[in-house]
Every structure is written in C-alpha cells, then in structure tokens.
Amino acid sequence: MPGAAVRKLKSKGAVISLVTTIGLIAAIVATLLGAGFFSQAAATNDAAAWLWTSTTGELSHVNGDNGRVDIRQPVPDAKGHDVEVVQTDNQILLRDLSTGRVNAIDPATLQITGTAETPPGKGVNMALHDGKAFIVDTVQGVVRQVDPVSLQAIGEPLRFAAGLSGGVFDNDGKLWFAVSKEGTLVSVKPGEEGKAAAVDSTHGVAEPQHQLIISVLRKGVAVLDTTGSQLTTVDGQDVRNVPVTLGGSAIMPTATDSTVPTITVTDGRRVLAVDGTSVQEIPVPGDGPDLGAAVEWWGRIYVADNATDKVYVFNRDGSMADSLDIPAGDGPIEMQANDGFLFVNAPHSKNALVIDEGHKVKPIDKGVGGVLGAEVPPEEKKETPPEKKEDAPGAPRNVKAVPGDGKATLSWDAAPNNGSAILKYVIEGIPGKTFEVAGNQQVYKITGLENGTEYRLTVYAVNALGNGPKAKSNPVVPTASVPDAPKSVDAVAKPDGTVEISWPEADGQGNKITGYKIDSVGAGGASQPVGETGGETKLVTEPGKLAYGQQFAFTVTAIAESGAASEPSPLSPTVVPFTKPGAVQGLQAPTVSSQKGQAQASWSPAAANGSAITGYKVTASNGFNQTVTGTSATITGIPDGTTVTVTVVAINQAGEGDPANTTAQAVGQPTVSISGHSANTNSLTVNFSASGNGGDLTCTATINDKSASGNCGQLTIGGLRASSGYTVKVTVSNAAGSAEATRDVVTDKLSGTVTCKNYGTGDTATYCNNGINTYSTPSQNGNSKGKLQHGTRADALCKAGGDKELFAYGYNNDKKSSLWIKINSGGGEVYIPWVWFNLDSGDNTGLLADC
User: Which residues lie closer than 8 Å to 574 by C-beta, 6 or more apart?
Assistant: First the structure.
C-alpha cells in the first residue's frame, strides 16, 4: 500500500505496508533455514519497524527511539514478490501475491501453523483482530471467516456483489468493506465459538456503481464516494455526510492512527483534511499527479511527492511546516505509523526517515548497521516527466446497449482521458433519469424499463477539465423473451498475456442464440466489456487488454437473435493475466578496477508483468553465462583491455523478456613514459605519464636500494649522493600487470676545497705542508688513502659522522666537528674531515645526504 499510514495496535489486527511485509517473509525463510537472526529480531523493542530496500533485497530493522538500524538482513528470493501481511501480538497472516498462498505464522516461534490457497495478484485482503481472522476476496465478493491459526473456514462464507473495497478491522473488532456495485458500506461481526460471521450493519452511502474508497480511522471509518464527491464517516450511530470538491483522482490511506480523514486529490495536487464537517483544503507545491496518500500525524499533514523525492509537511491550517528530502531512486515513498513513530521509507533506495510525536525527524541510512547486508548500488536519478497537456475527455467508444427483461445493459470502451483521469460516466436517455457511475465502470445495467419500448441511450465521460462529448448507443427494446445465461464460466491466463474464457452453450428458451457478450470484474468493483463472440463458446482476449498482475473474473451474457440478452452468468474463477517480463532498466557494467578481467553489471528490476521474476540471465560476448536472482552480477574472464557486450534478460513463468544491452571493459595493461626530471644535490624528482587503462594504478620510482611510491605522475627519491650518476626506474602496476620505464640521471654537483690556512696570519701552516690525510672510513683510525694539499678542489658526495670530534685550532677558522665528507678525489672515493674541507655552498652540509 504505497503511501499508506499503517498503525500497529496492541492485540488488534492492523494492515502492514509492504515495508514490514517483506520482513516477515524473511522471518519465515529464516525459520526454515535457522532462526538465529530472527530470534534476535523478536527481542527488539516495539517502537520499531522493518524497512525494505528493494535495490539490495535487504531488510533493515529501524529503532524509532534512536533512528538507528539494529539489523540488516538480505532476504532470499524476496525480490520481485509483492507480499501483504497483517499481524497481532499473537498471530501473523502472510499472503504472497505471486502465488496467492496465505500462511499463518506463530510470532513466538515464527513457525507456519496453517496455509490457505487464494488466487494470486491483488484483490484478496486479510484481516486480524483479537483472535478473529478473515480472508476477503474482493473480486468475487466473498467474505470468509477463518481460524487464525489453522486458516480453516469457520461457517459458511458471506457473499456480496462482485467487486468489494477494503476489508479492514476497526478498533471495536468489526470488519468494514464497501460494496461499490450497490453503493453500500458494510460492517461484519465475527462469529464466536465456531459460529459463522454475520452482517452487523449496512449503510447506503452512494448510488450503485459509484467508486468507493474506505479508510479505517482511530475511531470509526470513513468512506469516500469519488463519483458523487461525498465523504461519509461512521462512528457507531453517528453518521455524517460531508460534500467534498475533488475535481480529480482521489486516494486515501487504508488505515490511519488519526480521527481526521485525509483525501489526496492527485490530479489537482490538493489534500483535503476533513474534521467533522469542516474541510481544510491544502494545496501541494509542484506539478504532476505522483502523490502518495496524505497522512495526518499529531496535528500535521504529511504527503509524499514521489516525483521529486520530497515529503511535504503542513500545519492543519494549510501553512507549510517543513519539507523533507528523501532520495527514493526510481520508486515510491511509503509511510506507516508504529507505536508513536511515523516511518517514511523509500524502498528503492537506502534512505528512510523516522518522525516522533513532536515531529523531530531522524534520517536513516538502511545500508549501515548490523553485521549482514550488501553494498547499496547507486541510486538512479529520476527523469522529470514531460509536461502533460490536459483537456476534457473524448467520447466513449463502441457504445452498445443490450436489452433484457425490463432492463438494458449498456457497455462502452473507456473514453480518452486527455491527460486528466476520468472521474465518472454519465448515462442519459431514460426520461426523467440520469445515472452517474464511477470512472472505473464501463458496464451498467438499467432496470425498471418498459418491455416493447425503444430507448436510445447516451454516455459521456467527465474529468477535472469538464464533460466530454456524448456517444450514442444502438436503439434498445427491452423484452421478456430472453435466453438463459451460461451456467458456468471458466478462465485461464496464458503466458502470452491473453486470457482464454470459455463456457457451455446457454439454453435459449426458444430463442436462437447468436452471440455472447463477456464482461470483466476487477478489484474495487471495476468492470469493463471484454469482447463478444458470434456464437462461439470461447473468447481469447488480446494481449495486454487486461492489466497484468491484477485479478479479474468474468461473466458471460447470452444474446438472442432478437438482440435480447440473458442475465449475466455466475462469475468465473479469478485469474491474473501475465506475460513475459519487460526489459531491465538502467543496465550498466563498469570495470572492476581492482580485479583482472572483471566488470560489475547492475540494473533496476524489470517489470514483472503479472508473474514474479524468478531470475536474470546475464551473458557476455566473451562466453560468460550466469543466471542470478538479484540485480547485479560480476562478469569474469574478459581479456585484458577488451570490450565485450553484456546482455541481461529477466525471466518469469512466461519465459524470457526483452534483452537489455551495454558494453563492459576489463582492466588493460598499464603504460608509463618518463617525461622529465629535476635534481638537487641529495634528491631526484622524476616526472612521468602513466595510465591504468581502467585499473587501480600503483606507481613506484626506484634508484638502487632507495624508492618512493604514491603519486602516479611525479615521485621524489631522497638520500642520494651529490655529483653522482644514477639510473631511475619507474614501475606502474594494476590488476592486469605492470610496465617499466628508465632514465639515466645525475645529481647536482657540490664541490669544495681542502683548507688548512691560518686565518690569523694568512700563511699555510707547517702542519699542512705535507697535506691533509684522507681515509677509507670516517675515522683517523681507518686505512689512510693518501694526502690532499691545501687548495685541492674535489666533488663532495655525501656526509658521515666520525668517531670523535676534530678541531682545526688556529687553522681554517677554528672549525670543530666530528663530521666527515666523502669526496671524489683522483678517481677514488675517500673521506676527509669537514674541518679541513670547505664546501662551495657556504659550507652548508645540509645539502648532502648521509652516506
């Protein structure tokens, strides 16, 4: 129920949105595979909600008090399955829309206690309250009480006109639903001690075949007649009718923890808050009809705009109180109320919000917390839909009237809505009478006509922009000479998107039967003509004529040669049309930069088209072939640097859908070239160009035993000797391999002079006449390498500390130091005390590296 606010009531039944629903599927799976995770989940506090993330197939348990994710759990095989769940403290009912199976779950043990089979797809609702349970088949109009543990039927079911709306308990334990075909709101009281349920009250709230929407409140129930623009609230004996101005399609939350009904007019972007008989109209900023059902929460109105990823918050007087951002990817924004908190979830992204009773908002990242889970793929940015031009509707098409005994049945194909939803159809042609029917109705039976009198009926559509042109039917003359209806109807959904409808020949009661007319009934009482035959007892619908994934049942009317029609046949079994899935969206396959020969494909789910997607087949032109259940796959075995074509196809019961294609490339071999270098006396900086060709690149420069790593463009190696030649090697590596480049380099020259001059007298001391000793090591105890005379020039290489301090007392400016300089003298490298060797750098030894 996207956009619905859902309450969790202690020991009372409550509908839970798909957000919480998927968590319970996960619980069942965990029970079968080992319940350790969900034992932990069961111990979490009540002020929390399970929030679903479809992009990762993952459930997050969010604590409302602190807004944190306590647990994250991938749910096996839950992607592509829509699920509905209701629960109390003592029992859980779960319905998988893909299979129609209902499971009863004991929340204490999370074991399945009973099962029941229903038609798949939307159209069957479940309800729980204080040990009472119902399964409501809205298409067939069957309301069945069942044991909440075993799901065995209790007593005979209650039967109503096909096409119900709702099926939700109120706080007093009454089950409420609307019968659109009769224009009534009905409450049912559950049977006690094995006795059958019974109708408790019936309220006429609308003309027959008006579209009705119900919303169970904290106290009482509200029903909206969208065709007649009237809201009726029922609270015990207090029944109020409040006119409302809609002018567009309207939605309401199925249930809400509020006493104020809220109506969202999606076409007009307005919210109507109805307090008693007072209607507060609140305009919602923006454009387009993509709004969720507004929720009243502690004096404020929250409404989601699914097109802009915002939740607007209004004060009750209509003024804007806040605007909340919640990036939602390509999906809706859902709201549910649990134990004093309003949870706002974007199931197609990792984002959610939790809002307390004081309207304090805590943002939630569902991709963090817990110890389980997967990386959340990037959220897709929504495209702004093109501007829609709106106008009054066109004329209904294929209008046909069929006579019966004192009646006529009028049917038509939907009128073009011209950008604004059809609100209702208006039927004229009976003197003194006009009939208004819901915009989802395309079949209407008019009774009380005179047999033998000719009638010419017209029908026109109405939307927010006005009335469309009238379309005339054929002349129709009611008659008492009518055939019987077929006694039964069968329907089978086919994998190609068609439905095969068949029936036995009808008894003409003396009339020759020349054809059959087939109509459908859908959830909420929607009806439309499906087709006609010329006497054949089988009809195959066109692919896509009936919405995929929706429940439908069918009636067949026999047509006599005179044109007279029988009553409709009994309803067929319910079927769900389906076909092959659509193409996946947003397919991309970027290079895995850290791995050899890999690309990571990801996509958004394909349209299931009425049948759950069982997997995605991923192939690539290098021979890769894998079927996965998620929405990502790692393509392997791609040759280095090669581009391949990646194809993804969704699979469901009907087969493979349309392919989606993209290209992917593996990491290529890296390349490197040295473009230049610069040097000083003790270091070298090398400049180079390197390419990882899609891979994560590691770069290293090496000279002998010295190296530097990091920047892939420039590296500096220190600790080099001055006045020296080297070969620098640059190595670059990625997952596919490595490459090298070398260059010969020379560090800057730093020369000096052997000096033992007496600066006091200006004379060369006798001590220096024989020269200054040089050694093989920085010590006067080392091997002597000869003498150098005063004034000898030499290139300095590096410096080293000696074993003792030397003092040029009276000579060479009284230098005192234990430092030695390695110099290049006579083609050999020797050490000389620094106190006897003056560097050209102003004697700055900091320009020399350590030896």
Answer: 119, 121, 123, 137, 139, 140, 491, 551, 552, 553
Cα separation values, 682 from 668, 679, 751, 829, 847, Å: 36, 8, 13, 17, 6
Distance (Å, rounded) from C-alpha 732 to C-alpha 718? Answer: 20
For the stretch 397-422, pLDDT in tens is: 999 999 999 999 999 999 999 988 89
| Cα 851 to Cα 243, 461, 708, 767, distances in angstroms | 97, 96, 18, 29
CA quadruple 591, 595, 597, 598: dihedral sign: negative
Please name the residues in contact with 32: beta carbons below 8 A apart, sequence gap of 6 or more. none
- 3-state SS assignment for residue 773: strand
pLDDT of residue 76: 56
pLDDT value for 45: 42
- First and final C-alpha spacing in the chain: 77
Question: 247 versus 251: which is more confidently predicted?
Answer: 251
3-class DSSP state of 257: coil
Q: Evaluate whether 825 touches 805 at the Cβ level (below 8 Å).
A: no
pTM (predicted TM-score): 0.73
The predicted model gives 342-358 an average pLDDT of 90
Beta strand pairing status for 320-325 and 334-338?
unpaired
Phi, psi of 611 (to 5 degrees): -140, 130
- Element housing 740 (H / E): strand 737-746
Residue 752: pLDDT above 50? Answer: yes
pLDDT, tens digit, 9 for 90 and up, residues 70-93: 777 664 565 657 777 677 767 777
Distance CA 2, CA 371 (A): 29
**Which token pair is 361?**
């908002």
Q: Quick one: pLDDT at residue 531?
A: 93
How far is it, in rounded angstroms, from Cα 436 to Cα 574? 27
Tokens of 542: 């066109």
